[in-house]
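User: Predict the structure for this protein chain, please.
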Amino acid sequence: MELPPKQIVCATDFSPAGDAAVRRAALASARYGARLAVVHVVPSSLWDDAGQWLADLAGVGSVDPEQARADARRQLARVVEENAAGAKAGCATDVRYGRPAPQIAAAARELGADLLVVGAHGEHPVRDLMMGSTAQKLLRMAPCPLLVVKRPPPFDYRTVLLPTDFSAPAAHAAEIARALLPDAHFHLVHAFELPYDGLMRYAGVNEATVQTYRAAAQAALAARLAELAADFRTGSATTHVRHGYAPKRIDEWIVELAVDLVVIAAHGKSELEAAFLGSVSAHVVQTAPCDVLLVRDSASAPRA
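Assistant: Here is the predicted structure, written as structure tokens:
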């Protein structure tokens, strides 16, 4: 990918969340002077079969895929006219047919996207709940950073939360964040749990000793965060270390620090692993009230 981005791809399903994503993508296009392509996917799935069955039952005739595409092209042109007028390098449109997440990821790959923008909640919240949202699926498929839009623009990303586990993917996410948002203030955060906390209590270690171990661990982690903060523009980064379960602590920081955007590494778990084990990035996408930028490291990003 290139920084600043030269090609932005935005996906919309014509919902209000999709409109917000198009507006955010147009703002990014204007800021970075990037080309913008807005994609809509006419879904092809079990739900289409159910729709056809209902159409037959009601006696209203068959669902015509070509007509659906033509209707989608007209609606997409309207969405772009209403929401993407500010795109600096113009705006292309693309209507596809198939499963939304794979088709959106394919469009991003084919167009050489440096940034992919989607809305957090689609037109079909019940279907998303049952089958997994398009944004969640794109966590594993997107070939570039994925911006999940939750709040309608316009507003700038001034206060950014940057969780880190000190891994290479987290360092890569920090690098992307600095390049995309040079004027923002960053809160570098790390939540930790002692590996033998419960075992020490079970063994009868007194609370004062446990707290001593926690304080020592927190001091060491704070020093590591301070080293990371040194890579940021002077005065543009604040560090926070807190004991506890990482997803819960991130939820707290988002509210306490009035965060506009969370930038977090997506480690690229498989669908099965994500379903059974979960992940911090998936939790943030699902629960954060603000926009979320997910960054895959180059080693785990899908290739064409």
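The domain at 155-304 is CATH 3.40.50.620 (Rossmann fold).
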